[in-house]
Design brief:
The protein is about 85% helix and about 0% strand. By secondary structure, it is mainly α. It has one domain.
Amino acid sequence: MNEPPTLLKIAGRLQDLSKALDHATSAAEELDEDAVRKRHAYEMAFSRAFLSTTGSMDVRKHHAVIETEHEKLAAEIAEAALRACRARIATLKVQVETGRSLSAAIRAEISLAGSGVTP
C-alpha cells in the first residue's frame, strides 16, 4: 500500500513539475519557431511550383500540391509537435494545481490536528 503523501514529498514533486514545466515551455518556443519556418517554406515552395507550371488553374494547383508534399508534411508534423507540447504544458499545470490542493488539504488537516478538533 502507498504511504500517504507528506508535505515534503509534495514540495519535491512540485519542484520537479516546475522544472518540467520550464523545460516544456522552452520546447514550445522552439517548436513554435520551427513550425512557423516550415509553414513558410511550404508556402513558398507551393507558390514557386504553382508559378512554374503552365495549364489551367486546377492543373497548376495540383502540380504544386504534388511538388510540395514533403514541405507540407514537414509543416504539419511540426505543428502537431507544437500541439503535443502545449498539451503537455496543460497537463503539467493541472498536476501542479493538484499538488497545491493536496498540500493545502494536508496543511489544513495538520492545523486541525494541532487544535484538537477531529476532521
